[in-house]
């Protein structure tokens, strides 16, 4: 992310050094002032470049878009754009970038999980489940994917599958929300699994 800035700093340093060497052979007296002057110029150049970079990155979306433009094969950058767009509730746009991150790195579970979360937010639960399935094939310990897949099954009235994912999420260290467990118990007409009865729950 900072390679471009490093290159600019290196260029400034080289230019200052070459200018100093040129003056050294012609005006030795002036060269005594070169080090402090060079330091001031370098500090000023860094300040300007930092200001410009901060202005470019005035939002997560702007930052990740800039990185994706400069590094078009960086899956993390496309995922970052997707996350920023999802936070803005621009779900259709987010899906485009999540999909690109998956195309670039299909073996990264997180990219599938994040696109699943976008589908979940859009209430497209079947598609969300498909992405959670892929994420969990790649990383069977991804507790958030189990939890969200459980809720997706719940909304599709697939209650047995929802209970299975609650159990798997708990096995991975997740803490189910008590209100969700109550809702699933009522909807499924099934008593809570004894193995889950004493599991710590997520508090509000």
What does this structure look like?
This protein has 204 residues and is mainly alpha-helical. It folds into three domains: 3-56, no CATH class; 60-135, Tetratricopeptide repeat domain (Serine Threonine Protein Phosphatase 5, Tetratricopeptide repeat); 140-204, no CATH class. Helix content is 74%, strand content 0%. The chain contains eleven helices and no strands. The protein has helices at 3-24, 28-31, 34-56, 60-70, 75-87, 91-104, 109-121, 125-138, 143-155, 159-171, 178-188.
According to CATH, the homologous superfamily of the largest domain is Tetratricopeptide repeat domain
Look at the structure and give the CATH class of the largest domain: Mainly Alpha
| CATH level-two architecture of the largest domain | Alpha Horseshoe
Low-confidence stretches: none
What's this entry about, in short?
This protein has 204 residues and is mainly alpha-helical.
């Amino acid at each position: 992310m900072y390679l471009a800035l490093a290159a600019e700093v290196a260029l400034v340093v080289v230019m200052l050094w070459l200018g100093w060497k040129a003056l050294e052979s012609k005006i030795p007296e002036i060269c005594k002032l070169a080090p402090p002057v060079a330091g001031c110029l370098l500090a000023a150049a860094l300040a300007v470049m930092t200001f410009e970079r901060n202005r470019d990155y005035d939002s997560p979306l702007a930052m990740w878009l800039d990185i994706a433009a400069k590094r078009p094969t960086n899956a993390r950058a496309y995922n970052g754009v997707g996350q920023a767009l999802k936070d803005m509730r621009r779900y259709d746009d987010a899906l485009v970038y999540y999909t690109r991150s998956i195309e670039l790195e299909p073996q990264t579970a997180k990219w599938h999980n994040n696109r699943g979360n976008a589908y979940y937010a859009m209430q497209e639960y079947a598609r969300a489940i498909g992405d959670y399935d892929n994420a969990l094939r790649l990383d069977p310990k991804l507790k958030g994917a189990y939890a969200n897949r459980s809720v997706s099954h719940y909304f599709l009235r697939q209650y047995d599958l929802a209970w299975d994912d609650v159990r798997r999420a708990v096995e991975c260290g997740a803490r189910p929300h008590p209100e969700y467990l109550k809702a699933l118990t009522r909807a499924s007409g099934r008593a809570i699994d004894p193995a889950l009865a004493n599991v710590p729950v997520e508090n509000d």
